[in-house]
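Workshop exercise sheet. Pairs work together: one partner reads the sequence aloud, the other fills in the structure field after running the prediction. Swap roles for the next sheet.
Pair: D.N. / O.F.
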Amino acid sequence: MLDRIADLLEAQDANPFRVRAYRQGAQTIRASNEAAAELVRRDQTDNPEALPNIGSGITAVIGEYVVDGKSGLLDDLEAQATPEMVLTRVPGIGRELVGRIVDQLHVQTLPELEATAHDGRLETVSGFGTRRVEGVAQALAGMLSRSAQRRQRERSSEGKGSGDDRPSVATLLDVDEEYRRLALTDELHKISPRRFNLDNEAWLPVLETQRDDGCSRRCS
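Structure field:
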């Protein structure tokens, strides 16, 4: 629930510190030796040792969810989230293409879009050839995979303030060009994503590279 709130806040370009707080809250609960629900029932959520790094606002959201089975904040964010806001996060899909997807396939979420990329429906939408559909499927496999979500939480919890250690735009573009070129010529090691991969086929190319700015990134 906290991860979903963070995702929706991020899609709405909310304050990044607020987004990070919800991601850290979710990670704290996962790492806790005791269920958050039990702490709420015993009225121990104010104990800083029980739920460290979780402020009173997020604690109240947790308490509401445990007691009422829902979150007013999450409901409000869900109501505000438009398909355009969600789907345009996928690389290579602009507002015009999103409009066609929504009109023809009635897709609202990233998992729904991923399903259409694998069952053939997305390719029926004007503007989506085989190569673009494959690109969307690969992008979504990375965005929705558990490992990608875990890496995002780990990066958020590191508390990087200035962002000075982040790669430059030029470096990112250079790595992207290398990845696409090597993937196209089938020169990259491939891994087996868990999503939509019942045969455990290795098809997702992975590039590990380092640039002069000292930035090492694993890209897929």
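Discussion prompt: Residues 16-31 form the longest helix (16 residues). What would you look at next?
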